[in-house]
Amino acid sequence: MKLRLELFVADVTASIEFYQQALSFQVVGETSKQYTMLSNGEAIISVNKREALGPDHPLRAANGERPGLGVEIVLSVEDLEAAYGAAKTGGHSVSELTLQPWGLRDFRIVDPDGYYIRVTSRHEE
Fold first, then answer.
1. Are 75 and 43 in contact (CB under 8 A)?
2. What are the residue boundaries of the structural domains of the chain, listed by start?
3. Alpha-carbon distance 47 to 13, whole Å?
4. Which residues pair with 49 in a beta bridge?
5. Mind listing the pLDDT tens digit for each residue in 30-86?
6. Is 32 helix (H, G, I), strand (E, B) or coil?
7. Integer distance in angstroms from the first to the last C-alpha of the chain?
8. What residues contact 65, with CB distance under 8 A and at least 6 apart?
9. Are 18 and 69 in contact (CB under 8 A)?
10. What number of CA atoms fall less than 13 Å from residue 21's CA on the CB side?
């Protein structure tokens, strides 16, 4: 089994730029203002225009509601220091690198639509 996420966003272009700059994702196929697939290793995140959801779709956020509330996207990387450096270079608000009680180091970042992302090492430090 592999996991693929589809995020419904306000501005597809801004989301593409965020995932490319902050998290080193690459566009798969063609870029579209409606739907674009991005990958980094085996992680696949697709960004879709929020309006693509019908008015009665259960994933459609109501006015003022934060998309992704209650979800933490976890990305495991081989080189945490490099991922952290790339995220900080983009000028995004990035937490400090932290050693967690379970033995892994990580940092946290939030995408333009408020999706919460934890980038973690793959092995205990």
1. yes
2. 4-51+68-121
3. 9
4. 9
5. 988 888 999 999 999 999 998 887 778 777 776 667 777 788 999 999 999 999 999
6. coil
7. 27
8. none
9. no
10. 16
Residue 119 main-chain phi, psi, to 5 deg: -105, 125
Tell me how many degrees the CA angle 23-116-112 measures, rounded to the nearest 5.
70
Q: What share of the chain is helix, strand, coil (3-state, %, to 5)?
A: 20, 35, 45
Can you tell me which residue has the tokens 């270079």?
Answer: 89
> What are the structure tokens assigned to 91, written together?
């000028």
Residue 111 φ/ψ, nearest 5 degrees: -80, 175
Q: Which residue has the tokens 């639509």?
A: 113
pLDDT one-digit tens code per residue, 85-95: 999 987 888 99
Given the structure tokens 């566009």, which residue do they identify?
27
**Domain spanning 4-51+68-121 has what CATH number?**
3.10.180.10
